[in-house]
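Researcher: I'm comparing several assemblies side by side, and this is the next one on my list. It has 562 residues spread over two chains. Same procedure as the others: predict the full complex and return the structure.
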Amino acid sequence: MSVTALKGEAPPTPAKKSADIVQLAVPARPAKPSRLAGLARGVAVAVVPPAIVLALLLGLWELLCSSPGATLPPPSTIWSEARDLIVDPFFVNGPQDIGLGWRVLTSLQRVAIGFGLAAVVGVVLGVIVGQSVWAMRGLDPIFQVLRTVPPLAWLPIALAAFRDSSPSAVFVIFITAIWPIIINTAVGVRNIPQDYRNVAAVLRLNPLEFFLKIMLPAAAPYIFTGLRIGIGLSWLAIVAAEMLTGGVGIGFFIWDAWNSSRLSDIIVALVYIGVVGFVLDRIVAGIGAFITRGTAAA
Amino acid sequence: MSAYLQLDHIDKSFTRGGATSEVLRQVSLGIAKGEYVSIIGHSGCGKSTLLNIVAGLTPVSGGGVILEGREVNSPGPDRAVVFQNHSLLPWLSVYDNVRLAVDKVFSGLKSRAERHDWTLHNLDLVQMGHARDKRPSEISGGMKQRVGIARALAMQPKVLLLDEPFGALDALTRAHLQDSVMQIHANLGNTIIMITHDVDEAVLLSDRIVMMTNGPAAHIGEVLEVPLPRPRRRLELVTDPTYLKCREAVLKFLYERHRFVEAA
C-alpha cells in the first residue's frame, strides 16, 4: 500500500517545480521495479517467516540434543551421518542401498494403484448411495462401521487373502482411501439442486448423460474433498503398511533403519514423507480447483 | 375437447407423514395454439404445482394433461420450462447451456453445423449472442433469464412454460424482458403458459388471465379475456380504458373476493 501511495504522490511534485529538481528523476525509479519488487515481496512474505521459524527450531533442537546424554541426534549429526541420503535422492549402490527418492517412488506407485482404484470404485459407490434411497439405507450403516476400522487392521486379512505383501499393501491403501471418497461423493450427489434434475428431466437426458453432464460436474467439489482426504490417508497408511510388509518402500526403510539403529536416516526419511504428503495434497487440491472452477460460484 | 392443450379435471394432493393436503381440485382449462395464458394467484395457491404438472415434473393425483390429443405425464422438451431461478448449469458457458438442449433435442435431426447455427440463432433472439462464451456467474440476473428463455425456445417446444420468469428481477430489467417475450411471441407464435403474481405483467402479456382461488384445494376462480390488440405498447396502455378495466378486474378478484388470509 505504501509503495503505491508514494507513486501516486511523486509525479505531481516535479511537474509543478520542474526546473529545480530535474536531476533527481525520482519518478523513474519506483515506476519500473515496482512489479518486480511486488513479486519479490510476495515471495519473501511466503518464504521468510517459515524459514526463520525453521532455523529457530533447528537451533533449539541442536541445543537440546547436543548434550552427551541425549537420546536423539542433533541436526549437525544427522547432516554428517546421513549426508548421502539428503544430497542425492537417486543413488543406487546395490539392491538394498538406494536413494530415498527411489523408495518414495516405489511407495508412490503403490499409492497410485490403490488410490486410483479407490477413486473409481468410491465415486461409483458414492453415486449409487447418493442416488438411491434404498442403497443408502442398506449400505450406509455398513460403510459407517467399516470406515472406523484402522487401516492396519485390514493387513492380516489382506495378507491371508492375497498371500503376497505387495498387493496387500495396495489393498490397505484402497480400503483406507475409499471411505471418505464414497461418503463425500454421496453427499455431493444428494445435494444436486432439484433445478438441475428438472432441467435434465425436461431435456430427457438418459442416465449416462445425466451422470456425465449433470451429476459429475455438480458433485465435483464434494468428490474432490473426498479425494483430498483420501490421498492424505493413503499416504499415512502406506508408511505403516510397508513397515510390516517389507520390500523397497519408504516405510520399510524406516523400519529397517530402526532395526540397525540409524536414527539419522529415520529423521531424513520423515522429512521426505512429510514433503511428499504435502505435495500430493496440493496436487489433488490443485486439480480440484481447476476442474471445479465453474461450479463453486453458482 | 378440441383445445391444443387441455388440462382435464386435475386433482393434486400431497401426502406427507400420513397427512394428506389437497392442493388443486378439479382444475380444467383449454388453451388454443398460439395463445398466451397467465395463471395468477396468491403465494401457496398451487400455481407452480399446476405448471409442474403440465411440465410433467409432478404427477397428478387425478385428471390429466392432453397435448394435441395425447396425454402427457412425463417431462419432455415439447413442454420447455423457463425456471424462476434460471437453472443454468454453472459449469457450462452460455453457449454450452443452450447447446446442451439443442444437441439433445435435435441429435438425429440436424447436423453439427446446423445445431451450432440454431444455438446462435436462439441466443440472438434474446440478444445474448455477445455473451456466448461467458459463464452464468459472469452475467447479470436478467441476462441469465434471457439465456434460460433461449434454452427453452431452442427446444422448439409446443408449449412454453414460464414459472415466474421475471420474479427475481428489478423493475426495469423486468420491463425489458417482458418486451422481449412479447416480441418473441409475436414473431414465433408460441403457445405460452406463464405463472405470475404481478397484475400488470399478466394484463400486459396475456390473451387470457386465469385467476386461482386460495388453497388448500385451489381451483380456477375466474378466467379473464384481455381484448387488447397486439402489438401492445406499455406506455400507451397506461391510460387505455380496457387495460385499466382488466387490471381492476384482476385486482378485485385478488384483493376483494380472495384475500390472502395469512398475509396481514
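Model: For your comparison table: The domain at 1-78+160-264 of chain B is CATH 3.40.50.300 (Rossmann fold).
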